[in-house]
Amino acid sequence: MILEMVAKGEPLPMTTDRLCREVESRIPDVICSVLVVDENGIIHPLSAPSLPDDYSARLDGIPVGPLVGSCGASAYLHEPVTVTDIASDPRWADFKHFALPLGLRACWSSPIFDADDRVIGTFAFYYRESREPGQPEQAIVDTCVHLCAIAIERDQRVLERERKAYVDDLTQLHNRAAFNAALAQLSCEEPGSWALLVSDMDNLKIVNDTFGHRAGDRMLQTVAQRISAALAPDRVYRLGGDEFAVLLERPEGLGDLDKAASRIMEALQPEVDVGGHLIAPHVTIGGAMLTSADGSADAVRQNADFALYHGKETVRGGFVRYSPEIGTTMARRLASIRDVDAALREDRMVVHYQPVVNLDTREIIGVEALCRLRSGDRVVAAGEFFDALSDGRIASEITTRMLAQVAADIRYWLDLGIPFQHVGINVSSADFHGGKLAREVKAAFGLHGVPLRHAILEVTESVYMGERESDVREAIAALRAEGLRIALDDFGTGFASLTHLLTVPVDILKIDRSFVAQLAGGVPSEVIVEAILSISRKLGMRVVAEGIEREDQVEQLRAYGCTMGQGFLFSKAVDRKAATGLLERFAQKRSWDRRGRQG
Predict the structure, then answer these.
(1) pTM (two decimals)
(2) CATH of the domain at 432
(3) Alpha helices of 27-115 — where are they, by DSSP H?
């Protein structure tokens, strides 16, 4: 019967309770007890169905030892221990006042060993009279010890499998599976009864790339320990990678989410020694509390994620608490990402081209490649799915598609004999990771036999403002060495435009349309445009004015010395067929050298 219960996976306490009752029914004058001993040598009651619960509870957490009753001594000595008189035996001196009032006079305990001969428990007979066990009882105990060993070992294997399934090996925190299980158990009936903090490390990738993954692992372990200590006993989880979550249920944390987040930030301030290098961990935290508007725990989880994403984009290294406004913004962004993702899968992303003209002759000296999305009969401009472009994966995939199509189109124009000069291709910071951009440009252009001098990579200042600014600079310098030219797009709207002119290797500046739109005598835009043109001439850079829509803007730009521009006055962005027609009619016969200067 007992083996059948073990085979069926019945709970361990139920199995050992049944064993004790079976034995007690066959030997009416004994009381059975089963204890387990953990890896640290600590006793934990398992079964004693005929003893009061408070008696067993008093044994919980006691270390084994030679003077710890019959069971503690048996586990300590690894051999059976028989005490015929609890009242006088020194091994029971500290425990007899628990046993004697229950009429217990003697106790015989035997150790339970696992397959590695480690003591994992004890099996005991209590007697109501002072006596030793008889020979028939010895045979029964031998069988019971064997059955208990089988049952306890199986239970330990199950617990270990569960532990591995729910515990992160690196940090020893509960993992994503445990987090999901915990969320599923939470009640959402009482607003404010629990809250969630989620965090991402901001500098783990730098640590991994600079000092190696062992250093990164050390950083993760330290962050896990510090977060756990800062908000104990609230539960902390490692969700994967550099993402952690804290489930707040105590009044202290629920009363002030900002304070709870601050405790994490403060705990992470001290630098961590990673292989001899001292580095301070940096995290961004998002938080959300259960409200009456949340129909499920998953809704709170999503809100916390939205707050985290918003924080990473706006206050990296700080804390953001969820608000409905954030939810609206993030929902719009996620919807945009889904739409663009679908368009990429269905090959509905296309390239249109807007001419760049010589303002004096109106000849086309180049084109800018612009991404468009086909939706039914509509061609959607990038402005309508701009939110999706902030996703690195989406932006990188779009660049890959653009490069392939642009290289094929340039080959087509060259084969037609068009005096084609260059295409400007917009790239993002995500494209520079791991040297990917250089490889893809060379592969796409090499496939069609197109010289790299026909490509201009257009970057915004934001590309230079991430965590790996120096890597981006080096990548751009290497691309220029291959013959590519670099244009700094939307110039004048960034955070430190003049500073970047000192350090960024670029060939062309593109004046943002916002300045061109406001050109009028005496206004600040005029001063700014004139200054940009003056600076660019002295630095040997060429300038393209964007967003030209009126003839008076052309005349003003020419008066300031600007010779190149683009905008609706000349043409909107058009597909390859229409762009081919424009190039055949208006392409400039002169060409540029590898640095973009006219020959």
Answers:
(1) 0.60
(2) 3.20.20.450
(3) 53-59, 69-77, 96-99
